[in-house]
Amino acid sequence: MAANEDQEMELEALRSIYEGDDCFKELGPTSFQYRVGENGDPKAFLIEMSWPETYPDGPPTISMNAFFNNQISPAVKQSILNKFKEQVDANLGTAMTYTLFEFAKDNKEELMENHQPISSGIAVGNDTTVETSSVTATSKIRDKKEQLTKAQKRKLADKIDHKGELPRGWNWVDVIKLAKTGSNEDE
């Protein structure tokens, strides 16, 4: 019961601290995201954290599975998560969400020092999560989707609507224009 009261107090503190901060996102009452770095920064990354029932006496689940992190190699993600695990172990028993987010902000360069952006033609998905007692990392290669040129996309957009149907009236005749040209011919 005391853990729930601690969680409620920490939740209120997080809301007041990060009010108006675009980097912080509350996904639920026990689940949060924090973006370290600005959008467009090649060394920016997104941390997801969720609290189990036993939090803060038990460690939070920390994840880097967000699509935002797809440009980060699995080895760098694992390195970041290992450093977070050290911080979690040092802060166990206390409210640590703010501490962990601030640790990430303060140590962004160190955490991302071995980062080389993934820039191949294949999209790489990485599932990396730190759970209560284990650290896991797996990677998957997804099929590359066929890319359309801008001209091809425009042509498609001109022909069909969001339902994939031709817009109403696409083949209607302009009666006014026809009437004007018809009356000019009569004169």
Shape: elongated
How many helices in DSSP terms? 6
Total beta strand runs:
6
The strands making up the biggest β-sheet line up spatially as: 1-2-3-4-5-6
CATH class of the largest domain: Alpha Beta
Rg, alpha carbons = 26 Å
Tell me about the biggest sheet?
A: 6 strands, antiparallel
Our measurement of the CA-to-CA distance between the termini, rounded to an integer number of angstroms, reads: 92 Å
Organism: Xenopus laevis
Domain RWD: 9-111
Pfam families: RWD
Protein name: RWD domain-containing protein
Question: What would your notes on this structure say?
Answer:
By secondary structure, this protein is α+β, with helices and mostly antiparallel strands. The chain has 2 domains: 2-141, Ubiquitin Conjugating Enzyme (Roll), CATH 3.10.110; 150-186, no CATH class. 37% of the residues lie in helices and 18% in strands. The chain has 6 helices and 6 strands; from the N terminus they run H-E-E-E-E-H-H-H-E-E-H-H. It has a 6-stranded antiparallel beta sheet with strand order 1-2-3-4-5-6, with helices on one face. The longest helix is centred in the middle third of the chain and has 18 residues, at 74-91. It is elongated and about 85 Å long. Mean pLDDT is 75; it is low at 120-143.
